[in-house]
Amino acid sequence: MRRISRITVAGAATASLALALSACGGTSTEASSDSKGGDKGLAIAYDVGGKGDQSFNDAAYAGLEQAKKEFGYSTADVEPTEGETDADKEQRLVSLAKQGYNPVVGVGYAYAAAVKGAAEKFPDTTFGIVDDSTVESKNVADLVFSEEEASYLAGVAAAKSTKTDTVGFVGGVDIPLIHKFQAGFEQGVKDTNPQVKVLSQYLTQTAEEGGFSSPDKGKSAAEGQIEKKADVVYAAAGLSGQGVIEAAAANKVWAIGVDSDQYKQEALAKYKDSILTSAMKDVAKAVYNLAKSVEDGKPETGIVRGDLKSGEVSLANSNPKFADDTELQDAIKTAKEKIISGEIKVKSS
């Protein structure tokens, strides 16, 4: 049951806070006057790229939708704004907490300072941050994943699928989080076939330069790798990854998606036959589980990690050409079992 301390002030306060939300990012809040007397549920604040990225942010939204359906409460999801500061992000989270949302989740490592600041101001609200393990406040759940493990399996798939012995990796932004994807992928390729060359490239040095939100940059990078004979390209680049997939489809090579099962994404339907698989992390499950823990009165806090063993990172099997390739599936199964047992130690940098 939801706790009495989560009941919020209605009326003028709600109106003023809604105004504050509109000032620091668009929202698709779905509140109603009869929703448990203002006792509201899960709210998420998106990372760069926003809802509709067919990847990371959309996965968080899926978790929100599941919680809303199951618990029957009001939810909110708020878009980022261009050029925003940490203070803007913190104000967004503070506004959501003031409105009575609990938990409040920042989607992406860029929310670290904002989550820490907001959590200090609202110690009775549970906050979550996806993809950051540095906040570690008593009322914050650091929702992190072993992306390198799924990326290792993507490397196995790439090495078994290439016909040119050249594959590519496109990272959105040159940061430690994306280094995990690169390290796991390269190790998976080399452990499977040392003769395969891996071309690696980052789109930008900072997120503000558009590394996670520029399909054109992703497309250009993939085209460059394809010109160098890469016939499988793995993108860990958020919305920019759509450009990588588009380039792969245009040049009749394989793309490997990330975070969500991109073969199933409606916006990518015309390219799906070129999506070999996707290295997934179950952001939806992590976000939903945090909401459920609050609903049950036992909020998750501290570092909450998803990995191959827990099933929260994996490879998608939606493409029949991938799922029906027995040799490829056997190689992936063997690698997965060795990672879970500890026989294979996957690098994260």
TrEMBL record:
InterPro entries: BMP_lipoprotein, Peripla_BP_I, PnrA-like. GO terms for cellular component: plasma membrane. Residues 1-20 form the signal peptide. It is found in: Cell membrane. Residues 47-348 form the ABC transporter substrate-binding protein PnrA-like domain. It comes from the Bacteria. It is a lipid-anchor. It holds the Pfam family Bmp. Keywords: Cell membrane, Lipoprotein, Membrane, Signal. Belongs to the BMP lipoprotein family. PANTHER family: ABC TRANSPORTER GUANOSINE-BINDING PROTEIN NUPN, TRANSCRIPTIONAL ACTIVATOR PROTEIN MED. This is BMP family ABC transporter substrate-binding protein. It comes from Streptomyces cyaneochromogenes.
